[in-house]
Amino acid sequence: MRIVILGVGALGSTTAVLCRALDATLAFVDFDKVESKNLLAQAFVKQSLGKNKAEALKAQLLNFHGVKAEAFGVRLTKENVEQLVKDAGLIVDCFDNAESRRVISEHARAKNLPLLHGAISGDGSFGLVRWDERFTPDAEDHAGQATCEGGEHLPMIGLLSATLARTIQDFVTKQERRDSMIGLKSVTVTS
Fold it and tell me: For the chain, where are the alpha helices, taking DSSP H only?
C-alpha cells in the first residue's frame, strides 16, 4: 500500500516515524525547509537543517531496515494534487492550514479515496484524528499561524501522533476506521 502523508511538520513527521514498520510505501509531501526552531517539536535532526522537510524525513527513515519512502518537496495545489496522491491506498492530512485541507478533501471525495485527518489546536489543548466524511477544517486565527514551534506542545504531539499512527495501522491491516479526540483531560475514541 502507498500511504501519502501531507505535511510533515510536528504531527506528520512524528506520525511517519511511528509508521515506519508498516508494510507500505510512505510518501511525504511538504514544500517547507527544516529550520532550527523545528528541531524541538518535529522528528528532524540537526543534519536536516536547511533541507526540504519531505526529503529530510525520507533520508532519515531510509536509515531503518526495510523502510520504503518517497518525497515530494512541493506545496499541494489543485493543479498537482492528482499527481501527488496517485496510487495512494490512504491519504493522511497533517496540514496546518484550512486551504490545503480543503484541496485534499475535495479531491479525495471526488475520487473516493480514503482520507484521514490529524489536527492539533493552536494552543495544544486538544487534537483530532478523524476520517474525511466526519471532518470540517477550521480556519486559522490568522494566516501562517504557528502551532507547534517551540516544543511546548510536545506531549500532545506525541499522544496525537501515536493515535494517528495506530489509526493508520488499523486501516492498513484490518480496514478499520476509527475517529479519536484527545484533550488535556480526556481521550475519546469512537468507531
Answer: 10-18, 53-61, 81-84, 98-111, 154-174
